[in-house]
Design goal:
single chain, 107 residues, 3 helices, 42% helix
Length: 107
Amino acid sequence: MAVSAPPKKAYPVIPAEQTTKGQEKRIDEIINRGSTTVGKSQPQEPEQVKNFNIKIMSGQLATIDQLRAQRPRKPISPKLAVSLQDWIIEAIEEKVEREKKRYNLGS
C-alpha cells in the first residue's frame, strides 16, 4: 500500500489591486493606534504552608477527640466529621480572632 501526502487545498488568491487605498489606510490606522498599557499590579506572594510539630498532653488529645466525636457526621460514615488537624486549625483561628478583637488589631 502506497503512502502519499494529502492533497493540498487551493486557497483563493486575492490580487493586491482589489484592496482600495481607503481600506489600507484604515488597516494602518488600526495597527498604528496601539492599545492602552495594562496597569501594574502588585505581585502577591502566595501563602505557603509551614509545617511544625506540636507536643500535646494525652489528656488534652483525648478531650479533643471527644469534642470531634460530638460533631455531626455524614449518615452511615464511620469517620469523624472533622480531622484532628482541621480541628486544631479551627481552634487557632478562633483564638486569633478573639485576640485581634481584644487588642484592636484590624488585619
